Amino acid sequence: MIHPVAAFERIGEENAFAVLARATQLSAEGKDIINLGIGQPDFKTPEHIVEAAIKALRDGHHGYTPAAGLLETREAVCRRTLAMTGVEVSPDSVMIMPGGKPTMYSAIRMLGEPGTDILYPDPGFPIYRSMIEHVGANPVPVPVREENGFAFSAEETLSLITPQTRLLILNSPANPTGGVTPKSEIDRLVSGLADHPHVVILSDEIYDVMTYDGERHTSLLTYPEIRDRLIVLNGWSKTWAMTGWRMGWSIWPDDLIGYVRKLAVNCWSCVNAPSQFAGIAAIDGPQDSVNDMLAAFDRRRTLVTDRLNTLPGISCVLPKGAFYAFPNISGTGWKAKPLASALLEKAGVALIGGPDFGILGEGYIRVSCANSEANIDAAITRLGEFLEAEKG
Fold first, then answer.
1. Rounded CA separation 185/182 (Å)
2. Predicted structure pTM score
3. Cis peptide leading into 102, omega within 30 of 0?
């Protein structure tokens, strides 16, 4: 029997893909499945973006590109960053990545090793912890609490930093909770980080445009005092409905950009050329489709929250960002993962159990708003009927 080295025994998974596979299998068997599990927009990629990729192929752009990405694509990222944050960045600081996860992996691989601590949000995106454990570092969860609107606490975060801490991972707007951390809390965090100059920050800002009710995303790029130790993760997947295009970008400090470029050369060479031309069109082209998607997610998050709060044993905080709700199901008497599994198999509703996002996810489920209002309404009706039948 072949055994990989120990590091590969420590790799976890993202259970949303397992749920997607099972939901797809059940659908193929003829069962009526409503998927509120997967975290991807249910809209088509805007047509002008698709056409840009087709044109690039027809124009002969099918070969290798520089490992960091085409200069034109990196310049487009710089224009977008300036428009969103007011901060000028150099294209020499930008990496075009095959999605968001390679930035997570690169940062954690670069800074984590046995004997070091890496702080990450809990509940949070499961790949953070998986990669931390893979490289042998010590994963230190930073609690993200419902009573705090699922925003992180600067005071609690800073209290977890030790001399062994190498990396702090932040995510706002957040997956899976939909929480948005206010600028005042980020101000306090950045102020406190002055006492910990050895800590690098990875800010996952992939949902930066997805805020509601007057909330505004605060990019960590707007704090020049940490710029020399800040990595910002972003990309095209969520904003422009381009999940399958595998297109992300990240902005790196001068001391680290050379290393991540070398890692790209060793691991994935480069991002495919036509997708990079599509990425330019996404940034520079009309944003009407983006605005339409955001308006739909706004309506859906309200529908999800209102409907869930009518069900016995369930309470749901109105999410301020992203396109997820994270209802508290502790009053139903169910554990989260068994409930999610039973709902898929018996009621035809795909959801993700909170423990898939961390230790503090127990008592919650993640509901994606990336489905039609009619399907959301039907799914929550099924959820209520399932709970009623099981109670009886």
1. 6
2. 0.95
3. no
Token duo for residue 281: 């069109």
CA nearest to 124, candidates 39, 226, 216 = 39
Q: Do residues 180 and 174 make contact, with C-beta atoms less than 8 angstroms apart? A: yes
Q: How far apart are CA 306 and CA 300, in angstroms?
A: 10
- How far apart CA 205 and CA 85 sit, in angstroms, is 12
Work out the mean pLDDT of the chain and round it to a whole number: 96
**What residue type is assigned to position 151 of the chain?**
A
Domains of the chain from N-terminus onward: 6-45+288-391 (3.90.1150.10), 63-284 (3.40.640.10)
Model confidence over 328-350: pLDDT tens digits? 999 999 999 999 999 999 999 99
Look up residue 349 and give its DSSP letter: E
Place of tokens 């199901």: 329
CA dist list (Å): 93 to 78, 81, 177, 252, 260? 9, 12, 30, 5, 10
Backbone dihedral region for residue 31 (phi beyond 0: left; psi -120 to 50: alpha; all else: beta):
beta
Of the CA atoms within 13 Å of residue 118, those in its CB half-sphere come to 29
Bridge partners of 170, per DSSP, are 203
Q: What is the token pair recorded at 197?
A: 């100059």
**SS3 labels along 91-129:** HHHEEEECCCHHHHHHHHHHHCCCCCEEEEEECCCHHHH
Rounded to whole angstroms, how far apart are CA atoms 351 and 371?
A: 12
Q: Tokens 């050369």 sit at which residue? A: 265
Q: What's the CA gap between 249 and 93, in Å, rounded?
A: 10
Residue 79 sits at the vertex; the CA angle it makes with 77 and 85, to the nearest 5 degrees, is 95
